[in-house]
Amino acid sequence: MNNMGGGNMRRPLIAGNWKMNTTVAEAVSLASAIAGGLEAGCAADVVLCPPFISLYSVSEAIKGTQLKLGAQNMYFKDSGAFTGEVSPPMLKGCCQYVILGHSERRQIFGETDRLVNEKVKAALAAGIIPIFCVGETLEENEAGKTAEILRRQVSEGLGGVARGKEVVIAYEPIWAIGTGRAAVGSQAGQTIATIREVAATVLGWEAAGAARILYGGSVTAANIAEFVSQPDIDGALVGGASLKAGEFTGMVKKAATIKALP
Predict the structure, then answer these.
(1) pTM of this prediction?
(2) pLDDT at residue 221, as a whole number
(3) What is the number of domains present in the chain?
(4) Is the sign of the CA dihedral 224, 168, 138, 190 positive or negative?
(5) DSSP alpha helices (H): ranges in 80-233?
């Protein structure tokens, strides 16, 4: 395993993907509860990713806190006849991050590596940090194709990205998302070390060493320590557990303690 010498310098990041859950009022209440459950100066970056309709309201609710805001998706064009889509300029006013290439977008909505790559480049051009998702299916995993699939997704998804740009990568084994079947910490750590090495071929060793790579897939307060204790895992992309303020803030605190910078 190779953390490229940067493992003790990467600030942990915990992102909550609320998916298609919460009304605007519920989103504001949840964001406020999460903000209230974290001590000032918590040594981790925390990103909330509510549905599009709640972005502005949540941005207002977390003003003056350490919480950051992310969108769950984005199209790569700035404007045009793209009914139902949301553009980088629309998000830039309130979002610092955007989730791109999530397995649900790839599987349910047919997003390709090429489309995800366009989105990643558009986000960076707009000054928004992409949380770029990769991961293999159960069938691919059982066929021993994990490394092959991830190598393709990372190299194609990050193709053409200028060296030195900040990109967060999230490894989500599709067989672990929403199933309660999380990967083993050491297994995820080894896979993420491989992702970092592939990213280095595209972004350069320095940028890849500084990039934060998260684990996602049935992460809970009970198992997060197993993942963030791995030197190459810098945090988590949390699904269902991010809808429970107490559990989510507990995860943030555990990650911040385990990954405390010297």
Answers:
(1) 0.94
(2) 92
(3) 1
(4) negative
(5) 88-92, 103-109, 113-125, 138-142, 146-157, 185-203, 205-210, 224-228
What does 48-59 look like in DSSP terms, one character per residue? EE--GGGHHHHH
In whole angstroms, give the CA distance from residue 207 to residue 204.
6
| Residues linked to residue 131 through DSSP beta bridges, in sequence order | 99, 168
Closest CA to 224 of 209, 211, 236: 236
Candidates 104, 136, 172, 226; catalytic one:
172
pLDDT average per 10 residues of sequence, the chain (262 residues): 57 98 98 93 94 98 96 98 98 96 95 98 98 92 90 96 92 81 84 95 93 93 94 96 97 93 62
CATH code of the domain containing 146 = 3.20.20.70
Please give the Cα distance from 213 to 170 (Å, whole number). Answer: 6
**Residue 172 is among the residues annotated as catalytic for this protein:** yes
Given a contact cutoff of 8 angstroms between Cβ atoms, the answer to whether 24 and 56 are in contact is no
| Given the residues 85, 102, 148, 197, the one annotated as active site | 102
Q: Is 118 part of the annotated catalytic residue set?
A: no
- Kindly tell me the number of DSSP H helices and DSSP E strands found in the chain: 11, 8
What's residue 116's pLDDT? 98
For residue 16, tell me if it sits in a domain. Answer: no
